[in-house]
């Protein structure tokens, strides 16, 4: 509100009206003095004034003053109204400036359209986004249409009085696309009637680009999660495979521990039994030379030799479990071994057998007798699995394993032998136990065949596996490391090789010494004997000093309570570095037999041996030493 006291023009008008009233008094006095011949102006002004004149003058003065006061009051009110109007206009201008500032500060484009879609207001942002449309009909100016645009949010706001949103894409003039979001709402008057529509336009190109980038990141993340999930699944599968492999290794370790326990017993028994068996086989071999091959005695001796050979197989099975039962490896004619094993094992069988061996099969180094034993065990089991007949398929193939192959064997070249039968197969609950010692499902089985076979192949750095499916049949696979050479030496003639020379025999068993001596004498050699390594070294030294050196020394590797062949050959080589020492053993806790050359021996022959095997070993050493 405006304070009236502060408006000084009102006071000036009142003062002027008082002055005019006084002037009227003076003028009336002057008129009376001139017109009515008063004595003087002062008398007419003050001293000789009639009551009537006083009343008149006072009335005129009052009217003048009242008129001045009224005029002053009117002027004051007009000025007050003008001030209020000025202040209202100033406030309105201030509010408009604030509103314009707010609208200008808003990043959205704002426009107001009447019910005919004519643009009544448009801020700068709106002009920058859609062009100057002020005073123009929206759809005519913007869309170049004669009617309302389909889905127009302002039209929808007019129709239902609600708020509506629409997204539109337009060219940005730079070869790209610009995205706009249009929000509309109705504008109502005091009566609640819709008189216009408010349109807010916002550019969302960056938002769309961010959404697209987010979508790509999300897809990339989903892909990464998928890859990681696949990796986790693979890691889980690998962990399961490792757990299975660990269980298998633990199972094999338990099996090996069982074999070691059995080996403690088997080693001692087999050593002594081999010496006795060697004496028997040697005497039988010599006796067969002294009789007519067509006589009944020859037939009886042949049966005795066959029985001894079967006993030899049993001894080999026991020796397989011994801790030092290392195979004596040499290159072997694998095709010949397979054929002989099939012929011997299946000669009286009702089943047929098929052999498939490629001509380029790689060579292997193995103990021929032990591999023959394994094949015999597998073929006999296959035969017994088909009592009504069938076909046993024996095959061999070259196999190369890499670092990524899932196999307990290391990478390298292998020869895989397979023996497949057409029997009922092996139940799943029995399959893990078939290689355990003494486990058997046969009434007359010993439970040593597969256990011995498994141990033999493991000591050849190979693997023995079995496959058996629900449809029946079982396939045993033997994997043996291959060597570079593909040629193998041809089989020697069965006849014993005669020779000459002086042989020293060292063995702790008198029967074995005597039998071996008789066999060598029969072959044409002269012999001498020693009960242990110390005696053998002493006799060798004396014979050398007397100029009658021994051409070869046949040494038993194990001498209970005395010097064995391992220590004795070391002392012999100190006396004579060219000594021809041959190691002979049926069992040893050291792998001397398998790697005899590293210990100073020139040859080896396994107990029990026949005349031919002994003659070959001695002849080969003497031939190499000359």
Give a quick rundown of the structure.
With 626 residues, the chain is of the alpha/beta class. The protein contains 15 helices and 17 strands.
Description:
The chain is an alpha/beta fold and 626 residues long. It has four domains: 4-104; 109-203, PAS domain (Beta-Lactamase); 333-481, Histidine kinase-like ATPase, C-terminal domain (Heat Shock Protein 90), CATH 3.30.565; 502-625, Response regulator (Rossmann fold, 3-Layer(aba) Sandwich), CATH 3.40.50.2300. The chain is built from 15 helices and 17 strands. A five-stranded antiparallel beta sheet has the order 2-1-5-4-3, with helices on both faces. The protein has a five-stranded mixed beta sheet with strand order 7-9-10-12-11. A five-stranded parallel beta sheet has the order 14-13-15-16-17, sandwiched between helices. A hairpin with a 5-residue loop joins strand 11 (463-468) and strand 12 (474-481). Helix 1 crosses helix 2, helix 1 runs antiparallel to helix 3 (51-105) and helix 9 (334-345) crosses helix 10. The radius of gyration is 64 Å and the shape is rod-shaped.
């Amino acid at each position: 509100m405006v304070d009236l006291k502060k408006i000084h023009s009102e006071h000036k008008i009142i003062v002027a009206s008082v002055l005019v009233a006084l002037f009227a008094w003076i003028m009336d006095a002057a008129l009376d003095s001139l017109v009515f011949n008063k004595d003087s102006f002062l008398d007419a002004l003050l001293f000789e004034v009639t009551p009537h004149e006083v009343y008149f003058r006072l009335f005129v003065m009052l009217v003048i003053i009242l008129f001045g006061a009224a005029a002053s009051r009117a002027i004051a009110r007009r000025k007050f109204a003008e001030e209020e109007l000025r202040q209202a206009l100033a406030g309105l201008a201030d509010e408009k400036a604030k509103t314009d500032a707010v609208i200008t500060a808003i990043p959205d484009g704002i426009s107001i359209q009447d019910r005919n879609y004519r643009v009544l207001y448009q801020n700068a942002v709106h002009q920058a986004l859609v062009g100057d449309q002020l005073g123009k009909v929206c759809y005519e100016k913007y869309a170049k249409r004669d009617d309302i645009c389909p889905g127009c949010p302002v039209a929808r706001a007019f129709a239902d009085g609600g708020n509506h949103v629409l997204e539109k894409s337009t060219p940005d003039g730079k070869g790209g696309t610009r995205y706009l979001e249009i929000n509309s709402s109705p504008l109502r008057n005091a009566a609640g009637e819709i008189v216009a529509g408010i349109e807010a336009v916002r550019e969302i190109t960056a938002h769309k680009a961010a959404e697209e980038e987010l979508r790509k990141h999300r897809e990339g993340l989903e892909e990464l999660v998928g890859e990681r999930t696949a990796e986790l699944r693979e890691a889980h599968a690998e962990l399961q495979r490792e757990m299975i492999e660990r269980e298998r290794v633990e199972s094999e370790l338990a099996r090996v521990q069982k074999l070691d326990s059995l080996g403690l017993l088997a080693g001692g028994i087999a050593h002594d039994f081999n010496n006795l068996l060697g004496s028997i086989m040697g005497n039988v071999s010599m006796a067969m030379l002294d009789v007519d091959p067509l006589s009944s005695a020859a037939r009886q001796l042949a049966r005795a030799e066959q029985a001894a050979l079967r006993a030899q197989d049993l001894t080999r099975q026991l020796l397989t479990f011994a801790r030092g039962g290392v195979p004596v490896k040499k290159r072997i004619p694998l095709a010949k071994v397979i054929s002989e094993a099939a012929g011997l094992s299946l000669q009286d069988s009702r089943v047929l057998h098929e052999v498939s061996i490629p001509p380029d099969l790689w060579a292997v180094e193995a103990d021929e007798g032990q591999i023959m034993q394994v094949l015999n065990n597998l073929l006999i089991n296959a035969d017994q699995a088909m009592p009504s007949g069938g076909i046993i398929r024996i095959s061999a193939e070259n196999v190369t394993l890499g670092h990524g192959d899932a196999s307990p064997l290391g990478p390298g070249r292998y020869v895989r032998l397979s023996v497949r039968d057409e029997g009922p197969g092996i139940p799943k609950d029995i399959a893990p136990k078939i290689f355990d010692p003494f486990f058997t499902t046969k009434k007359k089985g010993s439970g040593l065949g597969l256990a011995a076979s498994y141990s033999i192949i493991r000591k050849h750095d190979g693997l023995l596996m079995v496959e058996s499916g629900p449809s029946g049949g079982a396939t045993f696979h033997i994997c043996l490391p291959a060597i570079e050479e593909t040629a193998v030496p041809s089989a020697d003639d069965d006849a014993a090789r005669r020779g000459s020379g002086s042989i020293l025999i060292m063995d702790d068993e008198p029967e074995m010494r005597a039998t071996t001596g008789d066999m060598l004498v029969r072959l044409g050699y002269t012999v001498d004997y020693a009960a242990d390594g110390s005696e053998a070294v002493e006799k060798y030294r004396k014979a050398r000093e007397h100029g009658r050196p021994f051409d070869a020394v046949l040494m038993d590797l194990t001498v209970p309570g005395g010097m064995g062949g391992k220590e004795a050959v070391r002392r012999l080589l100190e006396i004579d570095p060219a000594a021809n020492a041959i190691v002979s053993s049926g069992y040893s806790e050291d792998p001397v037999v398998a790697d005899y050359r590293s210990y100073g021996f020139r040859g080896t022959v396994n107990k029990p041996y026949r005349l031919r095997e002994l003659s070959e070993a001695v002849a080969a050493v003497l031939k190499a030493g000359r």
